[in-house]
Design brief:
The chain is α+β, with helices and mostly antiparallel strands. The chain has helices at residues 50-64, 74-82, and strands at residues 6-8, 13-18, 21-30, 33-40, 68-71. It is built from 2 helices and 5 strands; from the N terminus they run ββββαβα. Strands 1-2-3-4-5 form a 5-stranded mixed beta sheet. A hairpin with a 4-residue loop joins β1 and β2 (13-18). The longest helix has 15 residues, at 50-64.
Length: 98
Amino acid sequence: MEIEVKDNPAQHRFETTIEGHTAIIDYKLRPGVITVLHTEVPKELEGRGIAGAMTKFALEQIRERGLQLIPLCPYMRAYLKKHPEYQDLVKEDAGENV
């Protein structure tokens, strides 16, 4: 299944809508830094790899924009542990290492 994710800066989130349900990754943006707050996938869409696809898209966008990442979202933190190729995006003083 192809998942089309987009950035919605007006709502401060990355999002995708599938079968009428919207999955989101909320963030807060400051100059040079993005804080990922929360990932939410509706129950109807769970188990399809949507959160992972959205997280990969978000991390690629963060890299392209040259931003530093503060991953407060538990899902994002878990994803980063499994995908060390994105570890360089994490802001050094963001607290404990992810």
